[in-house]
Write a structure and sequence with these properties.
globular; alpha+beta; D-Maltodextrin-Binding Protein, domain 2; 7 helices; five-stranded mixed beta sheet; seven-stranded mixed beta sheet; about 260 residues; Fructose-1,6-Bisphosphatase, Chain A, domain 1; 2 domains
Amino acid sequence: MTSNEICTVMQAAERKAAELILHAHGVMTERKSGARDVVTQYDRAVQQLLMDELRAAVPEAHFFCEEMNEREKLDSPQLFIIDPIDGTMNFVRGFSHSCISVAYAEKGAVQAAAVCNPYLGEMFHAVRGGGAFLNGREIRTAEDELANSVVCFGTAPYRPDLSDKTFALARRMFEKSLDVRREGTAELDLCSVAAGRAGLYFELDLSLWDYAAGALIVEEAGGVCRRADGSPLALTAEKSTVVAAASESVLADYLRETADLR
């Protein structure tokens, strides 16, 4: 199968999984690493549905998923990177702002991505070299500079040692932009940059499944996605800082304005 065909399968699987989320009831939570890091029966159900659908289409594929004890190698010839519910705390608390995220990689490079927001009926997707799309219509990042942009950020809630730095950066961006937003799902924040809704997004501690799909969508929409110091992102099991910008110019503004905070 081509990357385009696999991306179509990914989107179809996410649409099926979206129905589970939209009709969720009796949500039960379990703690993982702490009170802020939780999992529900729907995270597991969505992940299983996605794996079943994707394995049926690509039997030789491997998987690297959030709710998975044994994750397969990132340099596998064909690999799906899955976050079944990005924004689980939003889901648990009824904020209706969460998404399903799947990235498809070949030998360590993401080739296709799909991010579904069930609540708004929005499907973002991209295939490397083919542009980025929202519900089938091509999207592009905004042309505004940082001063005329909204900035999204994440608080790295599982790393309280990063709180002071995170909020110092958020305060700086509040001063240098139109406003800031903290919405609780990295993948949808990345898609907001891709769609031109926000000019910048940053977070100081993310797992690969939190950004693998959104990073490709940003890049295919004309933006840039890097580590918070401006260095390239890597497909790695280690957690990473992430900054996504509508353009190289906005990224340069961010790096310049936050140099003393890094």
